[in-house]
Amino acid sequence: MDFKDWRKLPEEGNEEEKAPKVSKYRGRRFYDYIDEQIREAQEQGKFENLQGFGKPLNLDDNPYLGDKALGYSLLKSNDYVPAEIELANEISKELERAESRLANLRQRGQALQARRVPPFPSEKRAFNAAIEKEAAEYERKLRELNRKILTLNLSAPSAMHRPLLEVEKLVQQFRESCPPFAI
User: What distance in Å separates the CA atoms of residue 167 and residue 144, rounded to the nearest whole number?
Assistant: First the structure.
């Protein structure tokens, strides 16, 4: 075995020892390095024959549940949802329902305006009355939804909190988007 004296300078003729070894990934971000390794593995086909490839993941088994696993599986199989989530879903559905009623009324007004024959005075009065009735109903529904949102915000974790609806602003926007007919 040949020993080299590390204290001596390398000879001029040996250039391989002179060049410092530079890593292929030096000066690059860590994520770039990982992405390149993943890309190389994909090109080599290392991900193609994995167990369960192309099948949906089974997320029902949670190894961290421990003793609570049976309880959670019973609740899930009986379609039980916590009260906070049920209330949040109810708020979303009622708001969608109210918005769809307004959209139907807007369409009705646009259809009346787009007709070849101008609307009759009775149609104008009926449409104006429908606007007033729907605006009052919309305002009542928004105030009711605000009460439900307050209840949700008091009972749910902060990640589920919802901002209160700006009732006056939303009603004003509806009135501007669906103006009544001049009689």
Answer: 10
